[in-house]
Amino acid sequence: MLGTASAMPVAERNPSAQALSVHGRYFLIDCGEGAQRAMVRFGVPLQRIDSVFISHVHGDHVYGLDGFLSTLAMGGRLAPLDVYGPRNLGPMLKFFLSYNEWIGFELRFHPLEKKVPEVILETKSLEVLALPLRHGVDTYGYLFREKEPPWNVEKDAIEKYGLSLTEIGTLKRGEDVLRPDGSVIANADVAYKPFVPRSYAYVSDTAPFPEEAAWFKGVDVLYHEATFLSEYEAEAQKRLHTTTLQAARLAQEAGVGKLVIAHYSSRNTDPSCYEAECRSIFPETYAAQDGDVFDI
Amino acid sequence: MLGTASAMPVAERNPSAQALSVHGRYFLIDCGEGAQRAMVRFGVPLQRIDSVFISHVHGDHVYGLDGFLSTLAMGGRLAPLDVYGPRNLGPMLKFFLSYNEWIGFELRFHPLEKKVPEVILETKSLEVLALPLRHGVDTYGYLFREKEPPWNVEKDAIEKYGLSLTEIGTLKRGEDVLRPDGSVIANADVAYKPFVPRSYAYVSDTAPFPEEAAWFKGVDVLYHEATFLSEYEAEAQKRLHTTTLQAARLAQEAGVGKLVIAHYSSRNTDPSCYEAECRSIFPETYAAQDGDVFDI
To answer: How far is CA A224 from CA A243, A287, B233, in A?
Structure first.
C-alpha cells in the first residue's frame, strides 16, 4: 500500500498507489503523487516493475507517473514498460515524452475501452482483467488472478511406479495413466495441485453498481475504495464514490476472503472509524495504512 | 523547506520546494513532487500562496505543480495565481488546464527570458528579481529583497515638538524640518528606520559562474544548491551542479549572512557531511532538512 488517501493532501498518507508482487513480477497499480518516494521508503524495487495499471486520470491516481517514469529513465532503464489505462491517459504519456525524449526505454501504452470485463494481460500463470467502473470519467478496476496450476506428481510416486516422462506428462495434464499391462495409476493417487489459484481485485474509484458482486465473486482479497463514512452517503452518491457500509455489503454478497479499504476522505482521516463501520457488516475488513503489506 | 532532495527519490526527503512568507504574503519557490503534502504537514497555508516561482522544468522542481494546482481548485479557490518561470513551463501549465478546464481561478503565467538579473515583481515593500543560472536548460534563481522602508517618527517627538502632518511627512521622507522661526528639527534626532531591509536568494540548480558573488553580495540568507560533496567535483561540473566547497566559497566571497544548502545527491543523503564541508570555509552554513524553518 503506497498511498491510501483520496484527493485532498493530508500529512499522514499519499494518494492512491499500490505495488503488487506476483510470481516474482512487480506491478504498479495507480500512481498518485509521491508513489516513487513511497516505493523507496517501503522497499519496493522500482526498476523491477514491468507493468503499470492506471484506473483513471484524476490527479490523485496519476500525478506521480511523470516522476516515476523519469526515475526509471535516470536509473538507466532499458527494459520496456507496459502501461494500461483509459484512452485519455494517452495524451499525458505523450506529453511526458515530449519533454523527455532522451529516455532509454520503450513506453508501451495499452489504451482501454471496455464495456464489460475483459482479459488485458495473460501469461502462463496469470491473467489480468480490466473492469469498467462508474466514476464519471472513464475508470477501470483490475482483477488479477492466478490460473489453475498444472498438477505436480509426487516425487515418491515417480520412483515407486517407475513413471516415464510421457506418463508424468499425462498426470500433469490431470489424466490417469493407463499402462500396457492394463493397470491404472489414478491421477488422484499420485498428483496434487501446488497451490489453489489466488485472486486480487483493485476497485478505486467508483459508485456502487449491481454487477460488482458477480464480478468480484469469491476473490481472495478485494481492495475497494470506501471514501466516505456511512453518514455521508448522499455525498458519496453525488461524487460517485462508495461508503464503508456499501463496500462491506458488497464484500459480504460477493463472499470475498478479505476486504481492504482506503481512499479516505480528508474530512475524517482516521482509518479505524472506516474499519469499524465495515466490520459491523463484514468482520474481515482491514483499513489500509501507507506501508501496509497484505499477503494473499 | 518543503523539499531538500535532488532528483532521485529518497525515503527521507522530498525534491525541491520552499515556501517563503514575506509581510503576510506566501510564495512558493519550486514545486517538486510531494510539495503540497509537505505544506499540509508543515503548516504552510496552501490557499494563501499567491505567487509561484519555478526555477526550471526538470521534474524534481516541477512535478508537484499539477497536484498543487488541482488542490487549490478543489478547495474552491477564486483568487488568481501568478506563476513565474522559464518559457518552457508554459506548455506544462497549458496541458494541465486542458485536463482541468473546470478550475475556478485564473492561472497567470509570466514567462521569463532574461540574460541579466531583472525585477519581475515589485510591490511597495518588496522586489523580486529573476537571475539567469547555468544549468543546461533555461533556469532562474530568484532574489527577494525588501525595499528601504520610509522613516518612522518617534511618537514622543510628535508631542514634544507639536509636529504638523506636513512636518511629519517631511521627516518620513528623510529630510530635516526647517521651521518659520529658523529652528531645525534634525531627521536624525526624531526619525528611525523600522527595519533594515532583508534579502533572500534562491539558487537551484546551477554550475558556479563568475557573476554569482556580485549578484548575491551581502544577502542575508543565500540558499544555494550543493548537490555534491567536494570529492565529486568532476561529476558536478559535468552535470552543471555545485559542490559544497564551491557554494561555501561563493558565500564567503559574497559576504552573505547565512548559507543554507540542500539538493543533496542520492549518493550521500546525510546532510551533516555536506554541512561539515561547507563550514570548513564558511561557518555560517546550515544544511537544510525537510520542515526546517529559517528566519531572515
So the answer is: 10, 10, 50
